[in-house]
Each structure stands twice: as structure tokens, then as C-alpha cells.
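FORM 7B: Structural annotation worksheet

SECTION A. Query
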Amino acid sequence: MTAALPPRFGARLPMAVHGRTGGRPRRVARPLSAVPKAYGRATVSSDDGVRGATLFSPLYLPMWRRGLQYSSFPNLKQCTAVATYLPYRDNEGWRGLVREDWAGFADGAGGLTRWLALQPGRRVVSHASRTVDRLETARGVVFVKHFLSASDRGTLWNRLKWLFRPSRAIHLVRIGEELEAAGFAVPENILAVRRRSSLGWPEDFHLSLECSVPTVRLRLRDLKLSGHGPDSPEVLTLLQRSAANLVRLHRRGFVHGDCLPCNFCAGPDSLLLLDNDRTTGGHGPDFCRAKRRNLEQCARYLAFSLGTPECARHFLACYADADGWTPPQRAARLALIGRRINLGE
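SECTION B. Predicted structure
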């Protein structure tokens, strides 16, 4: 999958790949003097081990009104058979990427927002920073994420982050390609677009197909309603699979931004990840803290939202076993997580 982008997508800052850490490349930016002056055309290719990234700074304010600042896909050779994306542009100002087999889906309605307004459905999430709608279209059920800001907290720092950060919708497509290349399943991406207001404030839309696989939360709820206790073999097997798959995700170099049982579906040897707009990868101390935060998020949800502290303890114990913690590591880390989420003895 090689994409050639028109001039409206702006310039790129190549980033060299220097080895791999945790299954993902570690990127080091080249100096500006090394950027080729090929502003008329931008290509995305993995043949030379170079990955594109957004050059997004106040020096490029004129580009804000031209559309999306594109982030390229890594591991393109491994993802060739997954999907092909084409540049998207409409008369409402939206710019981005559309799945090839969905190209032109909104042309008859006169634009993306008009097409969305014509589809029957309901709103499932409503926050100040984002909304999620479930729409029933002629081509299947589609989930529509509308990103309006970085966070519900309208602090100056959050506003600046949202103003200068790359498109979160495009990040969903990019991280989805990375996760699929690493052996994980994600919802099928349809569209990822961004537009900016006359003052430069961005908003994103991301469209994906619905996944019919029940999440871990739904399976635990059904088991609880059917009379299975936290110590039943069915519940313990489900928690063990979830912990083992989370270990596999972390060992591949990824951390989920919102690691809750409602955001992943765990099978014997498979993991389907939902809500990946904050899913990232990395290494070093920050990555270790992010992994611990994933455990805290999931254990807190299991202990309090589902009302089963025993499930949270068993989940943490299964993770420790799957990750090969030594007895001192196990005692110290489980005690720390227990204190942070008030799990108790």
C-alpha cells in the first residue's frame, strides 16, 4: 500500500527508524536540513525504512485551512492486504482518508455531515469533548466518533494540545494498522477526516463498522445474571484470557488509553480492541507507568463498576503469572495497585 498525496496535504518531516523496542519502531526526528524539498508531492513508502510525520508548527499556519495534516502508516508491507485508503475531500471542508471500497459514499448527499444527518440511529456517548453515534446505513451499522477537543476539562493546556496535535481520527487509522500488523483485531475503519474553523480550531470525524463480538464487560454481566459467581470456572477462564491477552499487547509495545472491559473482546488466542484513539506505544519509564495504569483501569472497573473485587484480584494475579513476575515483584506491584485503587485486602 503506497499512497501519493496531492500538494494540499502539506510538507512532511521524515523520521528515521532506529531499531525496534517492544515490537515497535523507535523514531528519531531528522534535522530540518535533512528534509527533502519535495513539497509538490508527498509519498508514503516503507521501502527505505522512512516514516512520515506531521510538521505542524506556527510556521505552517497557512496550511491549517487547507485540510488534514497527514500521518503515514508504518509497517506498510505487512498491511497491504488489510485496507487501501484514498484521499478524501468534500465541499464542507473535510479532508482526510477514506477506505477505497467506501469512496464517494457521501457524494449524493452533498457532504459528510449532510450524509450523517440522513442516517437513522441514536447517540450512545455524549461528552463536551466528543460524541459517539450508532447509525444504521445501507452498508451496515456504523459507529461515528466526533472529536471536538482533547478533554472535557477546558483548561488552557488541553486547548493548546488539541489546537496543535495531529488528527485523532487519523491516529485511529494509523494505530489500527499497527495493531493489525502485530496480530490484534480492531474495528474496520471507514473514514478519518479533519477540518478547521476560520480561527484554526480543529474537529475530527472517524467512522468504523460495528463489531458484533461481545465485550468482556457484556460477557461478565451475562455470567453474573445467569448465576455464575466470581469463583466460577467460566468467570475465571474469561479473566485469565483477558489478562494473558493484555500481557501480549504490552509485550508488543502497545498500551491502551482506556483499558476497560467494555473496550476489548478476549478469545483464547485473540484480542479485539475498541476505542483506540488514545492507544499508543513506547518504551522506558513512561511506558512502564502506562502499563501499570492499564492494570489499574481494568482492575478498578472490575472491582467497583461490576461489584466484584474478587474478579479484580484474580485478574491481577493472572496478569502477574502471564508476565512472569518474580515473588518480590508480584508482592510489591500488586500492593501498589491495590493501594492506588483502594482494593483492600
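SECTION C. Observations
Residues 285-305 form the longest helix (21 residues). Residues 1-81 have pLDDT under 50 and may be disordered.

SECTION D. Sign-off
Analyst initials: ____
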